[in-house]
Amino acid sequence: MRGTMMRAAGARAAVALIALALGLASAGLPGCARDKTASQTARTEAQVLVGAAEVVRVETRRLESGVTFTGELTPSEIVQVNARFDGDLEAVRVREGERVQAGTPLAVYRPRDINDQLRAAEAELLSAQAGLVAAQNGERRAQRLLEAGAAAPSDLEAAQAQRAAAEARVQAAEAYRNTAKENADRLDVPSPITGWVSKIFCHGGDRTAIGDPIAQVVDTRILELSATVPAAALERVRPGTPIRVRVEGLPNETFTGEVDRLGPTTEPGTRQVRVYTRLPNPDGRLVGGLFASGRIIDSVREQATAAPVAALRTEGTQQVVYRLSRGRAQRIPVTVGLVDEEARAIELIGEVSPGDSLLTGVLPGLRDGATVRVLAARAGTNGTTAVAPGTGR
Length: 393
Known about the structure:
It is a single chain. This protein is α+β, with helices and mostly antiparallel strands. The relative contact order is 0.18. The protein contains three helices and 22 strands. It has helices spanning 2-43, 111-148, 153-185; strands at residues 47-51, 55-57, 59-82, 87-92, 99-100, 105-109, 188-190, 195-200, 207-208, 213-230, 242-247, 250-266, 272-280, 291-308, 313-315, 318-325, 328-340, 345-350, 357-359, 371-375, 378-379, 385-386. A hairpin with a 2-residue loop joins strand 15 and strand 16 (318-325). Among the domains are: 49-62 and 302-386, conserved putative lor/sdh protein from methanococcus maripaludis s2 fold; 67-74 and 222-301, Beta Barrel (Elongation Factor Tu (Ef-tu), domain 3), CATH 2.40.30; 111-185, Helix Hairpins (Orthogonal Bundle), CATH 1.10.287. The protein is elongated, with a radius of gyration of 48 Å. The strands form five sheets. It has a six-stranded antiparallel beta barrel with strand order 3-10-13-12-11-14. Helix 2 (111-148) packs antiparallel against helix 3 (153-185).
């Protein structure tokens, strides 16, 4: 009997222990579920994935702002040499592209026609002078006859008019003779300037009339750049403003100058103002007619805290950048200073420093504090790519 009671008590104790264990297990289940959910949330937290090319550095650099333009180079002097008289050309002494000094003969005339013109001019002068003597004698006779009462005052007036006309003919004949003598003394056609022969219009044996073009000479030691800028940019463009130019055919070289003068009116139909710049060209490497582009530099910052313009974002009324720091994005409001349109860079004023890493591009989910993973692509042996996280600064 006693043994039976002891076995029953043991069975009840075992049931109680099992119930206690089950109760403890069931009480612990909610805590385990919460831990598991939190772990999964941590593992699945959203990340902003960016390529290495979408991370740029803030740096200290020179920035320039200005007005861009396009235009054409022309020689500072273009002179067309025309014929001074009628005659036959003996020869043309120069060729296109040849350099000439002021006074260099470009062409020479045959002397026969010019000498004939001189003899004709001298004969005409002698005739005019003889006519003047006759007119003067006639005036004196009319004066004496008037004093003797044998002529009317109108006779004297007519004689005086004839004398004045004769004097005018003598003056014209002297001018003609002087021109003919000058032509005969110099049968060549001199270059009026130092430069290069750009065009030849005549050849040996051609006959020219007064005013016919013979040659064109240009001086390219200084080239003039003619370009247009918007009228709205006038406050940024003044005579003396520095200018930087790149020229067609010489893409790796930059030429500098300054604004020389501005056009007094806008171009018809465009509201553009013409700007002129003189570029020194002592070695003659530049030639007239080349297409040129460049920028009129109105502001310079030598030590600007700068970044590519792609790093700037507009959110509402604020301009911001996102800095990458220890794997997270930091939203930083900034103010834009100088804008360098040519370099596509901007000056940043705010809590950014040289060396900071900034995010660019369209990045869904980008916000302050977001986790950022920088993908650095590396080619695998099987053609796949592996990625490595970047933390930034």
